[in-house]
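Following up on my earlier thread - several people asked me to post the actual chain instead of describing it. Fair enough. Here it is, all 186 residues.
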Amino acid sequence: MIYGERIRFRHMERSDLPRFVDYLNDPEVNWGLAVYLPLSMAAEEQWFVNMLKRPAAEQPLAIEVRQPDTAGSPDNWLLVGNCALLDIDWRNRSAELGILIGEKEYWGQGYGTETLRLLVKHAFETLNLHRVWLRVYETNPRAIRAYEKAGFVMEGRQRQAEIKNGKYIDVLVMSLLREEYEAGKQ
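Reply from S.P.:
Thanks for posting it. Predicted structure:
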């Protein structure tokens, strides 16, 4: 487990898949993702099998939020999404970051920013990466704000690189370097 203040990361389990199918088939959730076709449970099962073949550092982590203590159970956690460091380039010590908060009632409460900060800490302090980067749609200001709060800076723009609802939109590229992360800790 990797613990933050209100969240923790754990390995994804097969039992998590139905919830992720629900998330990825929800138009409000997948609006900011590169998902454009309905997802079946069979496809998600196949993704899970293939994911387990990836190096451990590149396997997505489940994001859980600490729930209020109920009936004396201090270990009460709710799955709300996942995050990952993808396609790690070990020579250049760089990785692409991905995040999904699928539980909409947890949107706008800082969980995305906390997830980003914890994942970036893991990237730089545990995996010894030098650069973490991501792609975000120009039409997703909430995500852009969360990335900026976590220290990411605009690096570039892929003009009209994605089509969403029949309209071409720009894809923004943002990154965070190790020295920027270190300076932000001060």
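The chain has a mean pLDDT of 94. That should answer part of your original question.
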